[in-house]
Structures
1.
Amino acid sequence: MAAPITIPRLGWSMEEGTFVGWLKQSGDSVAVGDPLFELEGEKALQEIESVDAGTLYISPDAPQPGSVVAVGSLLGYLLAPGEAPPATREGEAPAEPHGAEGVASCLPPPAGPSVRRLARELGVSLDQLTAGGSMTKITADDVVARAMQRGTAHAGGSLRSNPATHPGNWDAVWESPAASPRARRVAAELGVDWTRLRGSGRGGRVREADVRAAAESGVQASSLRIHSPLPSEAERLAGAISLSPRRKAIIAHLRRTQTLAIPVTLTTTADATHLVALRAQFKSHGGLVPAYTDLIACLAARVLRQHPALCVRWTPDHNALVPVADDAIDIGIAVDTQDGLIVPVVRDVARASLLAVADSSRKLIDTARDGRLTKGDMQGAVLTISNLGAYGIEAFTPVINDPEIAILGLGAIRREPVVLSDDRIVPQDRITLSLTFDHAAVDGAPAAAFLRDVAAAVAAPAVLLMGT
């Protein structure tokens, strides 16, 4: 029997992902474990392997590359030798996908929480929307356009499209929602069109006083300005910016970390004169030039070997700390991408040469910005480094990347006058280091000692980096 191919759930909070594309073609033979397609979700791009064997049949209505798809969406089938696709068997209806992962192929296109709330407010059924194609994301514009088409009633009034509005946008004019019986009677007696008045009653309700005031002003109803109340929640939500699956995953991870950790931030300044000079030497020789992040990552990894209290990671349940061996001190590098902060991990930094670390980090950063990091590329770090120096930021509070217990922030390097112990004033390159640590995992004194030693290493980098 044909085995359905559906969108898997890559993380506990994943509800949808981005279908990147097929790695096989329809008609190809597929074995168990063969990569079938690429899916982006939970901050990473992953190759999805086949759990069955057979001949690949891609459904005609399968999502196109770049489409946002719900978990469980049907992509196609794996067929046995000589077996026809389920939808083409003579006299047989298309097969239903089996299990919870297949039901989403019959669901309406995915919509974010704000769009679903907007649809409820405007009385629009998501089942009736196709958003221009099968299993693509429904936007607020789709909901509002449907409401205009149907003239959906809301809050006692009607939503009407504005003819002057550009076709690509929408606007609304809310008619007066209601009028008291007495106000209607007086309006008929005085010849006032109460539907064109702004009511002073609760919810914009037109009262008798509003009608008489309009009549006494001598203004004809036809010349009265149509007033609208303050924008409703639906109107505000219609302009909301939807978040990508990757951005949602980043938010969920940060919120979880903030819930579990007790973050404390320490700051200090360090003499970066020799660090700047060392990087200048690499520049003068040509070839690969390590970034300041690479230099300090190497220094911090070597310092970590002397600070076992900081060289640990939380277990998944946050009930214990796992020590990290000297040959497994991996460092995360925070990278800014279009969808937010991503943290690829450079391996074995404490033992690797400086140029090897620089080469690895550069490749990982390029991969991250191309959106092609795998989940494994972002796991296993004991410490993350975040550098905001390029933006002129001197000190900040970096956010811990769970299950790590600390993150080191690098500020801008400034040339400043410094008073030495013999009262001489000399120019120095200075950098501010910001260490955020989880007080539930380590106390302030060990964290401060680690930061002190990192600052000392920055002041004399050759001692730790000699021969690298």
2.
Amino acid sequence: MAKPKQKEFGVGIIGYSIGRVHAHGWQGVGEVFHPAKAKARLVALSGRTKERVQLEAQRYGFERTYADWRRLVADDDVDIVDNCAPPYLHAEATIAAAEKGKDLICEKPMARNATEARQMLRAAEKAGVAHMVGYNYRFVPAVALAKQIIDEGRLGRLYYYKGSYLNAYAHYENPETPFDWHHSSEMSGYGALGDLGTHAIDMARFLVGEVKSVQSMSRNFVNSRPKKKRSSEKVKVDVDDLTVSVLSLKNGAVGLLEASWMTPGRRDFLAFEAHGSKGSLMFNLERLNELEVYLPGEDPKLEGPRNVLVLGREHPFMTRYWANQAGGFSWENSFTNELNHYLECLVDRRSVSPQGATFLDGYRNCLIMDSMVESAKKGRRVEVEG
């Protein structure tokens, strides 16, 4: 009996920074999930710097390159537009791709604000195309295991959730770090909140549910940066370096969220804690194969928190990796898992939700960030719309 023909989707990626991570992830689908339900063919890569685009295209085997994302969107061989450009290009390019009938992936944050995110959501829904936002940490096995434990009610009634994303990204604690798009609200929408906090918000929504209201405080510590490296000309910085927010969750729990790129010593500290009436769990991305779990009463001999190595075949997503081997799962594998999930959902004609984040999730995320910005400016609690 002949084997069924593998479905193939042409992929076009806009942007080559996080875009190269996505390219690596697309390539990994066929290897890790062999025989995969579908194959991703890297058709086109676009970006603003010709030499860099060509270098990355050669590295990952793209068939062609474009200097203008519009040509990529118009390419008939591109079935999926994967938007990895900075946030100021998310809405225009993604909406244009939706109008061309392309299936969509957009990196986080989905947009510079909730207004743009709503427009993107409506365009995708109107076109009837698939859509996903790049919250790849949903596809880390330890995070997925935490989700299972919470959904099974093993923590009981949730009381308190704490989420953090802290680092010293590109030495942002150094005032001499040159200005780039991250430092401009016109280009990025938000600062540390959008670059890092958006992931912490998604983790909170994914694990424990919707946010009802926020009470926030933000600070900008370095208000100008050199225009270029070793330049005496300064450019104004108008985004947050730090945002902290107290959350009121719709399930009655209290939350705390913090995001900063000015925390020296923190390399990639995406962390969360969930505490309930029956137990607690804790996770830290810097130790991404570990989940700390406390479920009192399960075994009196093991009273107290225990560290679970999430490397066995019985754990989420681990059947395709080097199970039970130290270092059997790494950061880039989360993208492979995420993109394979997207392809399987395309083949099965179903939404990427609830495991993946849809444009509705991206829109809700932007609503929460908008509310945090408003709360910090007004110095009061703000209800999140919807």
3.
Amino acid sequence: MEMSYNPSAHTKAGVQSILSNTFMSGSVSISATVEDTSVKAKQDGGYIYVTPETTNEQVASAIQMTNFQVKTSSNKSVPNNAKAATGNIFVNKTYNTEYTIIVPGDVNGDGEVKSADFAMVRAAMLKQTALNNVQKKAADINGDGEIKATDFARVRSHMLRETLITIKGNTTTLNSNMSYADIIMKAAEESGISPYSIAIKIIQEVGSKGSGSVSGIYPGYQGYYNFYNWGATDGNNAIEKGLIYAKEMGWNNQYTAIVEGAKKLADSYVSVGQNTAYFYKFDCVDDVSTGLYWHQYMTNVQDPSSQASSLYNTYAKNNILDISLNFVIPVFNDMPSSCLLPTTINTSNPNSYYINGTGVRFRSGPSTTSGSLGTFSLGETVTVLNLNAGNSNGYTWAEVKRQNGQTGYIANCYLTKC
């Protein structure tokens, strides 16, 4: 299932349905520092950051400048009623000072956020092309100093008119009650990840009743939250390790922990094209920055089957199987017709073999006319008691013992040493 955010398919009602029987079904009191995103333009050093679709006249009004002129970097005059464009120069004629305009998302400097900008942000994110300093600032949509998946997601969302790119003004303190559904929808908007995937990820990590990672009262780490178990490596003291990480990141409220944790999830995987849970665990995405296979954290090849079953049950339980969902269906070429499942048998035992055929008969004696004791499954492991127990019907027969203790015979051409 695709993990990218699609506002037309992913709704707050769908999130509420997922959360209905969990600790996140209600609201929580939030006190968090957030930044005002209602401003049209903001001066910062030698730059003026401008919200897309803003004219030069509106820029002047926002920064309270009456005597101004706008020109291109090559000194050509730009009309005051034209859209502000990245790289143009805003001149304060009263003090004869100049500022470079930066419109987040407008990387190529044509005054609009379009597919060409989308492609440039993606290429920069994957380290395929280099940008000059002004272009870098325009591509860094969220202003964190790096070009990452969250920037890529914001350009895409704005280009499709799903959300708007904004610039950050002064910080304010958010003090209010917010539903977990609203927080997760905000996390989806900020990260570009499906809110359904965010909700399911949290439930899988901390459980439907929550854990010490999200209680806010864990001894020694009161007031800190980690909804995705970032840093909580397997083994002893996993919760404490995760909360140490949360404290380092400043995740001291539920809102910040969920939103910033989702953005980290996006930047770690979605940024390199790994936009499904399967691709998180098995890196089959051949991108420029990482290549194939190494950017993953799963070693159990049977995990997709169990995870798919678990995910299906979670969706069924929360009545969202009939909601619109997006899927990525990869098709792999040149795959074998079948493969063996892993085995937990002790492969150091010299008498351990696995069955290399499908539907192979288990016989009561060393011949095809002997009574049938059933069939073997492909990959089933057995212990060989006698590898050459007789010859008949064109086969050499082996006496073997199944894991349930039953003994019998099989043509030894169907045996492969473990």
